[in-house]
From TrEMBL, chain A:
Name of the protein in its database record: Dihydroxyacetone kinase subunit DhaK
InterPro entries for this protein: DhaK_dom (IPR004006), Dihydroxyacetone_Kinase (IPR050861)
Record carries keyword Nucleotide-binding: no
A Pfam entry, by short name: Dak1
Enzyme class: transferase
The gene coding this protein: dhaK
Molecular functions (GO terms): glycerone kinase activity; phosphoenolpyruvate-glycerone phosphotransferase activity
Automatic annotation (TrEMBL), chain B:
Subunit details: Homodimer. The dihydroxyacetone kinase complex is composed of a homodimer of DhaM, a homodimer of DhaK and the subunit DhaL.
Native species: Lysinibacillus telephonicus
GO molecular function: glycerone kinase activity; phosphoenolpyruvate-glycerone phosphotransferase activity
Keyword Transferase included in the entry's annotation: yes
GO BP annotation list: glycerol catabolic process
Entries under InterPro entries matching the protein: DhaK_L_YcgS, DhaL_dom, DhaL_dom_sf, Dihydroxyacetone_Kinase
Lineage: superkingdom: Bacteria
Protein name stated in the entry: phosphoenolpyruvate--glycerone phosphotransferase
GO cellular component: cytosol
Cited function: ADP-binding subunit of the dihydroxyacetone kinase, which is responsible for the phosphoenolpyruvate (PEP)-dependent phosphorylation of dihydroxyacetone. DhaL-ADP is converted to DhaL-ATP via a phosphoryl group transfer from DhaM and transmits it to dihydroxyacetone binds to DhaK.
Keywords assigned by UniProt, alphabetized: Coiled coil, Glycerol metabolism, Kinase, Transferase
Enzyme Commission no: 2.7.1.121
Reaction(s) the record says it catalyses: dihydroxyacetone + phosphoenolpyruvate = dihydroxyacetone phosphate + pyruvate
């Protein structure tokens, strides 16, 4: 696979340098580490996200006003080091504590937990909310083992809004956890991505095949089929989600149709069209909808859909304005 | 100098030999990068060999550029280099192996079988506490725990250091081979279920390479008559 890069070992450093070169008015890089933070964090609880690179614009693209205040990123598909997480945390904590919001992967959990332990010695308070929205990654009774995918977007949006409300760390964590408990996602992959350092594809898929439940690092999915129409594959994805979360007539949801890397907006809107139809036919109210490629897997082709069931509290925080160069919501 | 059988406490490595041992062990793991990458690509995310190279390279830099005067600091600095530079799960787990080895341990300036067994026992416990994995979960533990057991057994049976390391190396290798028969409970391989069977675990492979390197290095010292004996 052809890639635009220099030395493959430097892709992450050079990406961060490029991000700062581009958006340096609002952001800065944390010294000696691949951490990106906002320049003017208000004096309140801080929200930090992070994980491996290769999912851009996540995670740095979710750093902004009313979103995360910083992101600690690692190499491609590899968790950030505790040092990076610690540096980002120290830059952002103003004594109110820090909430870590990130996808549930063992490498990320090990590194963030170790950072949290070490920060505890310095009296910096942290709490963690793990995003585990991927219904394909474990059975419902083992939901705590599920991986996090595009649900990160909604979780970070809610966390950032709650923090901006000057709530305590415990309150911000509780609201973010409530959001996560109400988020479900599933993806379908059409073609794999290749890792810059090895040039190798993360999985194999025949030219005429697709795989449901494929993870965002190429983790194997749950159902492989011949290529289906947009309407058919959307229906299958919605069925998986509706099997997992109770949605009744009159319930309100936010939906996100998320591209996995190289799938075009044209295709994503075709999915959104069908998703909207299915939910409306069931009397489910689409409070807000979004179509974009936020949580990608390098150049993987495919799409994921995410549903967040709302209540009045989640709606209140979802409605707050938010801004980053890659995610923006007008308040309402 | 010949080492007599039966005096497991009397053979030891000097501080400089321990340092050389760590550099040699790191070199052997780094040389295995292509093997580790291909093993990890089959059922993991393929970055294990790359990560281990980063960790051992950084550790070598620190070992060579600092005058570390205790065995404890060699373990500690190696572990810290891994935790601070590798990223991923391996960085924490392999780093913890070395850091936990010397946690709350008396400062020592030479390494014999008893101390080595005691250190790595603590390292094993540290890795298990952090990673939550047990024997049979298709992780580094499957090679590490049998190797540590072999060291303790050799100690009880009053074997010499070389024999103890030889047995530990063999047990680590057996443990690594046995991971082929296991279903993974952690990491990306977990989602493969039965499909992971037939593939060995990359972390267990690294542990096996490390123990083989320790045995080879110390055996070479013995052959050259450089092993210390008191």
């Amino acid at each position: 696979m052809k890639k635009v890069m220099n030395n493959p070992e430097n892709v992450v450093n050079e990406m961060v340098e490029g991000f700062i070169a581009t958006f340096g008015n609002g952001y800065k890089k944390v010294l000696n580490s691949n951490g990106v933070i906002v320049k003017n964090k208000p004096d309140r609880v801080a929200i930090i996200t992070g994980g491996g690179s290769g999912h851009e614009p996540l995670f740095i693209g979710m750093v902004g006003e009313g979103l995360a205040d910083g992101a600690a990123i690692g190499n491609v598909f590899s968790a950030p080091t505790p040092d990076t997480i610690i540096e980002v945390t120290k830059e952002l904590d103003s004594g109110h504590g820090v909430l870590y919001v990130y996808g549930n992967y063992s490498g990320d959990v090990l590194n963030f937990d170790m950072a949290a332990e070490m920060l505890d010695f310095e009296n910096i308070k942290t709490k963690t909310v793990l995003v585990n929205d991927d219904v394909a990654s474990a059975a419902k009774e083992n939901a705590k083992d599920r991986r996090g995918i595009a649900g990160d977007i909604f979780a970070i949006k809610i966390a950032g809004a709650a923090a901006n409300d000057n709530l305590s760390l415990e309150q911000v964590a509780a609201i973010t956890q409530k959001a996560v408990d109400n988020i479900r996602s599933i993806g379908v992959a059409l073609s794999p991505s290749s890792i810059p350092s090895t040039g190798k594809y993360t999985f194999e898929l025949a030219e005429d095949e697709i795989e449901f439940g494929m993870g965002i690092h190429g983790e194997p999915g749950i159902q492989k089929t011949k290529l289906l129409s947009a309407d058919e594959l959307t229906q299958i994805m919605v069925d998986y989600i509706l099997k997992d979360i109770e949605l009744e007539k009159g319930d309100e949801v936010c939906i996100l149709v998320n591209g996995l890397g190289s799938t075009t907006l044209m295709e994503l809107f075709i999915v959104s069209r069908k998703l909207t139809n299915i939910l409306e036919d069931k009397g489910i109210i689409i409070y807000d909808a979004d179509v974009n490629s936020y949580c990608t897997t390098l150049e993987m082709a495919g799409v994921s859909i995410t549903v967040m069931k709302l209540d009045e509290e989640l709606k209140k925080y979802y409605d707050k304005p938010a801004y980053s160069p890659y995610y923006f919501k007008k308040g309402r | 100098m010949m080492v007599s059988n039966g005096d497991s406490l009397k053979t030891y490595l000097t501080i400089d030999q321990v340092k050389e041992l760590f550099l040699y062990m790191g070199q052997k793991v780094i040389e295995s990068k292509p093997l580790l990458t291909s093993i990890d690509s089959a059922i993991g995310d393929g970055d294990h060999g790359i990560g281990m190279e980063v960790g051992f390279k950084k550790a070598a830099e620190i070992l060579q550029n600092n005058n570390l005067t205790t065995v404890n600091s060699i373990f500690l600095e190696t572990g810290k280099a891994m935790i601070s530079n590798m990223g991923g799960a391996s960085g924490i787990l392999f780093g913890t192996l070395f850091v936990a080895s010397v946690k709350d341990k008396p400062i020592i300036h030479k390494l014999n079988l008893e101390l080595l067994a005691s250190f790595i026992q603590s390292g094993l416990e540290g890795v298990k506490a952090r990673g939550k994995a047990e024997l049979g979960d298709k992780t580094m533990i499957d090679a590490l725990e049998p190797a540590v057991k072999a060291l303790h057994q050799a100690l009880e049976e009053n074997e010499d250091l070389i024999n103890a390391l030889k047995k530990a190396s063999e047990k680590a290798q057996d443990g690594m081979e046995n991971t082929k028969n296991l279903i993974a409970k952690f990491g990306r391989a977990k989602s493969l279920g039965e499909r992971a069977i037939g593939h060995q675990d990359a972390g267990a492979t690294t542990i096996s390479i490390m123990f083989e390197a320790i045995y080879t290095f110390v055996n070479e010292l013995q052959n050259k008559g450089e092993l210390q004996y008191e």
